[in-house]
Amino acid sequence: MLNMETEDFVPPPECPVFEPTWEEFEDPLGYIAKIRPIAEKSGICKIRPPADWQPPFAVEVDSFHFTPRIQRLNELEAETRVTLNYLDQIAKFWEIQGSSLKIPNVERRILDLYSLNKIVQEEGGYEPICRERRWARVAQRMGYPSGKNLGSLLRSHYERIIYPFHMYQSGANMVDYRERPRYDNEEKDKEYKPHSIPLRQSVQPSKITSYGRRAKRLTQEDPENSDPATQSSSQPTETSPSWPEPTVEDIEKNPELKKLQIYGAGPKMMGLGLMAKNKNLRKKDGDIPECPLTLVVKEEFAVEGRGEPGEVHVHVKSERSLSPEPCTKMTMKLRRNTITNTNQFVDTYICRICSRGDDDDRLLLCDGCDDNYHTFCLLPPLTEPPKGIWHCPKCVMAECKRPPETFGFEQATREYTLQSFGEMADAFKADYFNMPVHMVPTELVEKEFWRLVNSIEEDVTVQYGADIHSKEFGSGFPMLDGKTELSPEEKSYATGGWNLNVMPVLEQSVLCHINADISGMKVPWLYVGMVFSAFCWHIEDHWSYSINYLHWGEPKTWYGVPSSAAEQLEGVMKKLTPELFESQPDLLHQLVTLMNPNTLMAHGVPVVRTNQCAGEFVITFPRAYHSGFNQGYNFAEAVNFCTADWLPTGRKCIEHYRRLRRYCVFSHEELICKMAACPERLDMSLAAAVHKEMFLLVQEERRLRKALLEQGVTEAEREAFELLPDDERQCQKCKTTCFLSALACYDCPQGLVCLYHIEDLCHCPPSRQYLRYRYTLDELPAMLHKLKGRAESFDTWSNKVRQAIELDGKTKKELVDLKALEAEALEKKFVENEHLQLLRCSIQEVESCIAEAKKVLGNSQASRSHSTVISFESLIKLVQRIQSVSCVVPQLSQLQRLEEQAEILQEEAQKCLHALPDSASQLSEVLERCQAVMVELPAVKQIERHLRQGEWLERVRTALSSGPSSTLQEMRSLLKEAEEVAESPAVEKAQSELQELISIALRWEEKAQMCLEARQKHPPAMLEAIIKEAEHIPVLLPNTLSLKDALCKARAWSADVEEIQSGDHYPCLDDLEGLVAVGRDLPVKMEELHQLEVQVAAAHSWREKASKTFLKKNSCYTLLEVLCPSADVCSDTGKRSRWKREKEQGLYRSDIESLGLSAQDLRDPGCIVLAFKEGEQKEKAGILRLRAMNSSVEGGCVCVCGELPDELILRCEMCQDLFHGLCVPSPRLSNHHGAHTLPSLIWWEWDSRFLCSLCVRSRRPRLQTILSLLVALQKLPVRLPEGEALQCLTERAMSWQDRARRVLATPEISSAATALAERRQRMQQHCKDPHALRETTWNEQNPVSHGNGNSHSENGTCAMPDLDAMAALLPRIEKAAVLELSLGSRALLEDLMLEGDLLEVTLEEEASVWRLLLASQTPCIDRLRTLIEIERCERRVALQKGKDPERRKKRRSERDDGYSPPILPKEELGPKRCRSDIRAQETLSDKESPRKGGSEYSQNGGEKRL
Question: Which of 711, 824, 843, 1123 has the highest count of CB atoms within 10 angstroms of its CB?
Answer without folding.
Answer: 1123
